[in-house]
Design goal:
It contains 7 helices and no strands. The protein has 184 residues and is mainly α. Helix 1 (3-35) packs parallel to helix 3 (76-96), helix 2 packs parallel to helix 4 (103-135) and helix 3 (76-96) packs antiparallel against helix 4 (103-135).
Length: 184
């Protein structure tokens, strides 16, 4: 799939996950709890039956994107958007899908989170390797790669609001960054 099309689908997904978690699944949960208040088993069964397919489709999309998109530095920020969205919705996912029969939904959200993290780490590692290859060719390129790293870290820091950055950046990059903080 072309990046432009995938980018639009990711934007749609980011909007959809907010609406689905805050309105649709939450509303269905409230309605099921109200209508089937007298019987826990029926309440759980009905809510699971109503929400399972939609939730699985919703939370499998990031995994599909992570597995099938070409890893590149320019795509990292969209992947980070999806990663951050799932992280921010984790408490809602746990609260909305608490039953054992819904564990597959929680598991799918977690799997997507893990796959996105792996994809982001791979893209950043490949970006690091390409910068190191380029920077070893000339001094000017080395200066450029340091500027690129600084810009990348600033963008990642702002984008992730510091709460997921440490999980995603490869260890060699974290070491390089902390070393430059101490000596620059």
């Amino acid at each position: 799939m072309h990046w432009e099309v995938l980018n639009l689908k990711i934007k749609d997904w980011l909007n959809a996950v907010d609406v689905a978690m805050k309105t649709l699944f939450n509303g269905e949960r409230i309605l099921s709890d109200y209508v089937f208040a007298s019987n826990d088993a029926i309440r759980e069964s009905c809510f699971t039956e109503i929400s399972k397919d939609g939730a699985m489709t919703l939370f499998s999309f990031p995994e599909i994107v992570a597995k099938n998109s070409k890893k590149s530095a320019e795509k990292v920020f969209r992947l980070l958007d999806m990663y951050t969205s799932i992280v921010e919705h984790c408490p809602d996912i746990e609260a909305t899908f608490p039953f054992d029969s819904e564990s597959v939904i929680r598991s799918q959200a977690l799997t997507s989170l893990v796959k996105l993290g792996e994809s982001i780490r791979t893209a950043l590692s490949e970006f690091e390797i390409s910068l190191l290859k380029e920077s070893s060719k000339t001094i000017i390129a080395a200066t450029y790669s340091q500027i690129s790293w600084e810009n990348l870290f600033l963008r990642l820091k702002v984008h992730c609001r510091n709460h997921t950055l440490a999980l995603l950046i490869p260890m060699s990059l974290r070491h390089r960054r902390s070393h430059s903080d101490l000596h620059g």
